[in-house]
């Protein structure tokens, strides 16, 4: 028999997963080297008949369907479907496990990037931080989709505070922790709920809020008013939001000096006393008292000079706005969150 033409192109044997089987066929037939494509076809046929699933059997429609459901890349979806023998539900579980594995491997990573998220309803408002590892992921479509999702969960979470409570909140039978796992499996980065707080109004009042333009710092402030009309006044609402902006800028430690813990006060007094230790005892006491008054004015929200008009305190600015609306108003509490 004449040898077959040497002009036949050699098939590519790389990366087909059949190298061992092809070698076996070559040993059985000296002519097999000219028919490697047919050999591979027989091998794949044998695998299919014996229950070894072939990647080529996964249809493009199945891959696209899984991609639409999971949001994962095409190759990840095809690989998951192959491992799951074409079962969509099993493939989804595999993709979720991939996300959990990523979370586990990156557990010690810092999540210094992300966004502050605000959500509100008729008589409530919530503030949270959603954090990741890099600014690149924080700007990605996958992360921003998770931000939109977390607002829905913030609306359903009835707890006053606690990131764990928000993570465990369910919407349509799905926890937000599941959303995190799915997002991690797509981005490859650790993602966490850093902080969470919720305010609810049970009396006349309003909740002011402010998120800085970079999305990395924000605050909300809960205000009680003497009447609903006062809370609805444009001037009071504007002032409430401006106070929230003030909070993001000045980082107050507490509402008033009663809110500052005793340990902090003791430490500050000791520092001031050390600075003037060579003075007479009675002078030291007066100097320390003066320095503490300044400390409270700088760190207690009600006493701080208002950022937009430092001739007035925050408390006075709110009182003036309420007076113009025909009533009274006072700050009850506030919260400030920052990413990074």
Question: Could you characterize the architecture of this molecule?
Answer:
- The structure is a single chain.
- With 340 residues, the protein is of the alpha+beta class.
- Among the domains are: 65-102, Ubiquitin-associated (UBA) domain (Helicase, Ruva Protein, domain 3, Orthogonal Bundle); 110-200, Elongation factor Ts, dimerisation domain (Tetrahydropterin Synthase, Chain A).
- It is 49% helix and 19% strand.
- The chain is built from 14 helices and ten strands.
- The chain has a three-stranded antiparallel sheet with strand order 1-2-5.
- α3 (60-70) packs across α4, α7 (141-156) runs antiparallel to α9 (176-187) and α12 crosses α13.
- The longest helix has 19 residues, at 281-299.
- It is elongated, with a radius of gyration of 32 Å.
- Residues 1-18 and 29-56 have low confidence and may be disordered.
Mean pLDDT: 82
SSE order: HHHHHEEHHHEEHEEEHHHHEEHE
Instruction: Tell me the distance between the termini.
Output: 77 Å
CATH architecture term of the domain at 110-200: 2-Layer Sandwich
Within CATH, the superfamily of the domain at 110-200 carries the name Elongation factor Ts, dimerisation domain
């Amino acid at each position: 028999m004449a040898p077959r033409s040497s002009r036949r192109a050699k098939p590519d044997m790389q990366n087909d997963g059949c190298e061992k089987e092809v070698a076996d066929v070559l040993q059985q037939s000296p002519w097999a080297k000219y028919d490697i494509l047919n050999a591979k076809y027989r091998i794949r046929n044998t695998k299919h008949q014996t229950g070894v699933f072939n990647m080529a059997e996964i249809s493009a429609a199945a891959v696209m369907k899984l991609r639409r459901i999971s949001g994962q890349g095409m190759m990840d979806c095809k690989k998951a479907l192959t491992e799951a023998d074409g079962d969509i539900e099993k493939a989804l579980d595999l993709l979720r496990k991939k996300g959990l594995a990523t979370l586990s491997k990156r557990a010690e990573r810092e999540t210094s990037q992300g966004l502050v998220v605000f959500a509100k309803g008729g008589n409530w408002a919530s503030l949270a931080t959603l954090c990741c590892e890099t600014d690149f992921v924080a700007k990605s479509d996958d992360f921003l989709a998770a931000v939109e999702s977390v607002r829905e969960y913030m609306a359903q979470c009835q707890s006053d505070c606690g990131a764990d409570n928000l993570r465990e909140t369910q919407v349509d039978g799905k926890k937000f922790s599941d959303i995190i796992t799915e997002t991690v499996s797509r981005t490859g980065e650790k993602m966490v709920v850093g902080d969470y707080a919720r305010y609810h109004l049970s009396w006349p009042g309003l909740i002011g809020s402010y998120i800085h333009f970079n999305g990395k710092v924000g605050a909300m402030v809960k205000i009680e008013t003497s009447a609903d009309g006062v809370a609805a006044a444009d001037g009071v609402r504007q002032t409430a939001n401006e106070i929230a902006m003030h909070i993001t800028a000045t980082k107050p430690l507490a509402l008033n000096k009663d809110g500052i813990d005793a340990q902090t006060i003791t430490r500050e007094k000791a520092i001031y006393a050390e600075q003037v230790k060579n003075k007479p005892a009675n002078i030291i006491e007066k100097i320390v008292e003066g320095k503490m008054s300044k400390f409270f004015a700088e760190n207690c929200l009600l006493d701080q000079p208002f950022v937009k008009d430092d001739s007035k305190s925050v408390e006075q600015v709110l009182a003036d706005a309420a007076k113009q609306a025909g009533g009274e108003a006072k700050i009850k509490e506030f919260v400030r969150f920052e990413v990074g």
